[in-house]
Structure formats: structure tokens, C-alpha cells
Amino acid sequence: MRLTDDLVVLRPWTEDDLPQMVRLFDDPEIAFRTPVTTPFDARAARTHLETLRRAQEAGDRLCLTITAAEDDLPRGEVMLSFRDDSVGYAVGPAYRGRGLAARAVRLLTTYAHEVLDRPRLHLWIEADNAGSAGVARAAGYRPGDAEPMVVEDKGRRYPLLPWVHDRPDASLA
Questions:
Q1: Rounded Cα distance, 170 and 29, in Å
Q2: Gap between the Cα atoms of 166 and 169, Å rounded
Q3: Phi then psi dihedrals of residue 86, to 5 deg
Q4: DSSP of 43-100, one letter per residue?
Q5: Are the C-beta atoms of residues 67 and 8 closer than 8 Å to each other?
Q6: pTM given for the model
Q7: What is the DSSP letter of 30?
Q8: How many Å is the maximal CA-CA distance in the chain?
Q9: Which pLDDT tens digit goes with each residue over 15-60?
Q10: Beta bridge partners of 122
């Protein structure tokens, strides 16, 4: 599977991507904001790849690396959980601020609406995560009215605020 616009390509992770996966995810901000293993080393990368492959085979989620049309180097990850139609993403520190996350989220959102027939998608974002809120807005998401989801990870307990994206024709369905 490959999803692309004129700048971003979303494709499955491969074994060859493991060293770059370590460079992307062994980052304090990603460790703080996501449930990835810390430190994120070669073993964690291998485990992550195996876990996402099993989840995809089981029909639980779709997880793709974010690359650029100019080359095939992973710059981050975007995923769709089929259990709750939520989207998640992470971009490595060297690639932030370039609009890659918003483009990737838009691509995956369009695919989920048009191909997978998912009428409403969700993002869950910490209130103080201005970068992710900016990605959500740029990708066409809006704050939702559901109650915040409280999560606990790495000794931290915090609420995630809902953001939603409705399929453009969802009101006609």
C-alpha cells in the first residue's frame, strides 16, 4: 500500500527502515507524548515493527511510515486504529515544522473516509501540545465535544482532548 500526494508518500515500514526508526523515535518529545519504549533502541524498533505488523494482520490498525516523494527516507509515522477510528502520528525531530504530519494525516484521513468508509475519525491531543493542535487544524480536524480521555503512561496521568474529522458526505449518509 502506498498513499501519496505531490510531496508525501505513506508506505509500510520495512526491515531496512529500522536504523532510521531508532533515529526518529529515540527522542525526548516522542517519549513524553507517545507510548513508545524509552529509550528507543534497535531492539525497541524491531519490537515496534513486529507489533505493528501483527496489529495490521489482525485488522486492528494500519501503520505507515511518512516519507517524502523526493526520497524514501522515513521521517515519521501515521496510524489508524480500526477499534476506535483514531489517528495517531509522530514526526522525528529533524523533520518537524515542514507540514509533513498535517499532509500525512490528511492523506490517511482521506483514505479512511473514501476507501475504508469510516464516517468520523478522531485525534486525541494533550491540551498543552500546541504542535499537534496545529497539525489537527491544518489537516481539517476540529475540537470535538466528547469527554477527554484520561490515559496513564510512564508514570504520567493526563487527559487527551478529542478532535474530529467527519467525512464530507457523512451528513448525507
A1: 35
A2: 8
A3: -100, 150
A4: HHHHHHHHHHHHHHHTTSEEEEEEEETT-----EEEEEETTTTEEEEEE-GGGTTSSH
A5: yes
A6: 0.91
A7: H
A8: 48
A9: 999 999 999 998 888 877 777 888 899 999 999 999 999 999 999 9
A10: 86, 164
